[in-house]
Amino acid sequence: xxxxxxxxxxxxxxxxxxxxxxxxxxxxxxxxxxxxxxxxxxxxxxxxxxxxxxxxxxxxxxxxxxxxxxxxxxxxxxxxxxxxxxxxxxxxxxxxxxxxxxxxxxxxxxxxxxxxxxxxxxxxxxxxxxxxxxxxxxxxxxxxxxxxxxxxxxxxxxxxxxxxxxxxxxxxxxxxxxxxxxxxxxxxxxxxxxxxxxxxxxxxxxxxxxxxxxxxxxxxxxxxxxxxxxxxxxxxxxxxxxxxxxxxxxxxxxxxxxxxxxxxxxxxxxxxxxxxxxxxxxxxxxxxxxxxxxxxxxxxxxxxxxxxxxxxxxxxxxxxxxxxxxxxxxxxxxxxxxxxxxxxxxxxxxxxxxxxxxxxxxxxxxxxxxxxxxxxxxxxxxxxxxxxxxxxxxxxxxxxxxxxxxxxxxxxxxxxxxxxxxxxxxxxxxxxxxxxxxxxxxxxxxxxxxxxxxxxxxxxxxxxxxxxxxxxxxxxxxxxxxxxxxxxxxxxxxxxxxx
Length: 499
Description:
alpha+beta; 9-stranded mixed β-sheet
């Protein structure tokens, strides 16, 4: 890091104190061009990011979301190519205004390179002093070009008989390791992140996320070679080829089967995933009476495309309703979710159907309620049911959950529901299922009327093993899915109480 600091600082100081060697009258004029080069670089980054965000949003609007999920080569044409093309055109446009009075294109290339080095050196130094290990990755891309340029300026170019050839060779060695590492990192990121986009739920737009990832890859990798834009006579051929690749990629994603994101191929499976539950719901009022009871199939898409491609296979989905209509009134949207991720719940659908029958009923019983302090009440519960159960808890506004029997110390909320802290506890056992006893302490304001509710709690049962692990209705529903989907399903029960 300190070697890099010394080289960049020395190079900038040397240029500023001897500006006439590169055609400037004063050091101030050199620094002025250097700073304008920084502005051009940053503007190229911003413009390319805007372009990729627009592309990602447009693909989602026109029904081509995740078109690169199976055929990942499309991501290159949809995101990498337009990002590089935007930065090339931005630099070529900036060349006319920033470097128009520079005595040669090679001096313009050097000035652009120094602007890039200064910016990336500043970013790397900031990350280094923030003790972020990412700085070591970026340091390679700053240090190697700086060292090789230093060697070239003092030990190669002054004795060169063919400046262009030696210049290209020096820079080829300077790029080799940083470019290889950045491209390897890009490949690893692609192999990890693209499959994950099939599991991020229906809220995150994967095209925008992947666009940002490839934008980061481009600005890191392209930084090593972008200065050569200023040494080229014309970029019409390169720009035309890149634009053509982008157009073909968009046409392929939107108008051909290659753009469909999912595949049931055994050699390269990229299925669309769904979680399905045959649900029985019982919602109690504050006095213990049942205020609502229903049952049906709960369909939870795991990716952004959702259930939209399923209407041809399930015409009844047109009459189903999104569960977000109950997310404000019912704890965890009134559904037996396996883990707490409220945003994913909102885009799932609920299709009314027959009630499932269970041999191991779910029961949550308030064993006792007592005051352990003037304003603190302890509620003791007994929970019985199958081997996999969960409890959702949320105190009313003004009421605080201070302790519980699960852990020592202050309970930590999992998420927020209606601006109220919400707690999630998952409980699983082996074959010999025993009753589950637990307690919670809630702090209630002294002046809170007794007619007001203090605490919402919901118990959930997942019947994942044994005779209750499926139902005829669930089997029939899951068998109707096409072969390019992957489904996970089991019966569940959700029962909510207010105290």
